From TrEMBL:
Protein name: Uncharacterized protein
Originating species: Sphingobium jiangsuense
Length: 353
């Protein structure tokens, strides 16, 4: 026997209570009240429903993107595929079903493409391989990275390249205005060249004179758009080992050339040359003759001085022997050339003199 006086109640989110003799009746009253409220709101604001639908669409898109991000970027799942139908039915010919990769959301699609492009690599991340493929590092930087040349040798190569660019800038064709103008500079038109610039140009001259033939082989590997020693060897038709040896020996000569130039030219000499005074050219005998020159016994006695074997001995520098004509500041207690770090400190200290 049922209790006919029993009442059922349903409460909505706003706390309103709806009663009925049955649960279905109570729910029907709640739904009817909700529809009436929705109709009232729509009459008051007709754009509310499209805005709600747009908001729900944005939430669905964000939920889909987050799911793809978690699946493919966090968990590393492969790209999904979908089966699509290609072609149309024509006579006995039926459309075929093929599998195509699904295009993912923006931001996730690019990351998955990058991972798929470098998926064959065993070591390294896809981002590292992609950056390495788009970044052109110089041949000397690559040699330094794989341990062929040291950090000091890379620094010497950069100094040689800078001096080479400075010399190129001095002889470049420039445009000048020939209009009359007043020079208001404090130096009164005295274009004196810095001592450091003179010394570095002199060191480059020493260094270039000591390069064996063909000189352009070594220059192409250091100055300008430097190329690798394997490419230079193929261009100049020499063995890779010879091109590599010439490069390393040329770089190792630079510290002694710099030390010799700083020993030969001081501030007084540079000032005298800038003002046009006569100076004893003590710098003409570079380190190629002072340190690596030897007497050639097979040379004909046509001159008063012995012949110098510059090319062969320049390719085999002897850095262990004592140096006699350098500034004593560049020599250690045994009379040998100091390390490059010490030479660089001495040069930097003299720049502020």
């Amino acid at each position: 026997m049922t209790d006919k006086g029993r009442r059922f109640e349903v409460v909505n989110r706003d706390g309103e209570v709806f009663e009925g003799t049955t649960m279905a009746e109570a729910r029907a009253k709640m739904i009817a009240a909700a529809r009436d409220e929705m109709a009232r709101r729509h009459a008051a604001n007709p754009d509310a429903v499209p805005q709600f639908n747009l908001r729900m669409a944005r939430l669905a898109a964000a939920r889909k993107r987050e799911q793809q991000r978690f699946d493919h970027l966090v968990m590393g799942k492969p790209r999904p595929v979908e089966r699509v139908t290609e072609g149309r039915k024509s006579g006995r010919r039926r459309p075929k079903t093929v599998e195509r990769p699904v295009r993912l959301e923006p931001g996730i699609e690019e990351a998955v493409q990058l991972r798929e492009a470098w998926d064959h690599k065993v070591y390294g991340t896809p981002e590292t391989h992609e950056r390495a493929s788009r970044t052109h590092s110089g041949a000397l930087a690559q040699l330094n990275r794989n341990g062929t040349i040291t950090n000091d040798q890379l620094e010497w190569a950069a100094q040689i390249a800078n001096v080479y660019r400075s010399l190129e800038a001095d002889v470049a064709v420039k445009v000048a205005s020939l209009e009359a103008r007043v020079d208001q500079s404090r130096r009164s038109g005295d274009a004196a060249e810095s001592v450091y610039r003179v010394r570095m140009h002199l060191a480059y001259g020493y260094w270039r004179d000591m390069i064996p033939v063909p000189k352009q082989l070594v220059l192409d590997m250091i100055v300008g758009d430097a190329i690798g020693y394997t490419i230079a060897a193929r261009i100049y038709r020499v063995h890779n080992r010879r091109a590599k040896r010439l490069l390393l020996e040329a770089l190792d000569r630079w510290p002694r050339c710099v030390a010799h130039a700083f020993s030969m030219v001081d501030h007084a000499t540079a000032d005298a040359m800038n003002h046009g005074r006569t100076v004893d050219p003590v710098w003409l005998d570079g380190p190629s003759k002072a340190y690596w020159g030897q007497v050639d016994p097979t040379a004909p006695p046509t001159t008063g001085q012995p012949a110098i074997i510059g090319i062969d001995l320049a390719s085999r520098p002897d850095l262990s022997g004592p140096v006699q004509t350098l500034d004593p500041a560049f020599l250690d207690e045994r009379g040998l050339l100091r390390e490059w770090s010490e030479i660089a400190e001495i040069i930097r200290a003299r720049l502020v003199e």
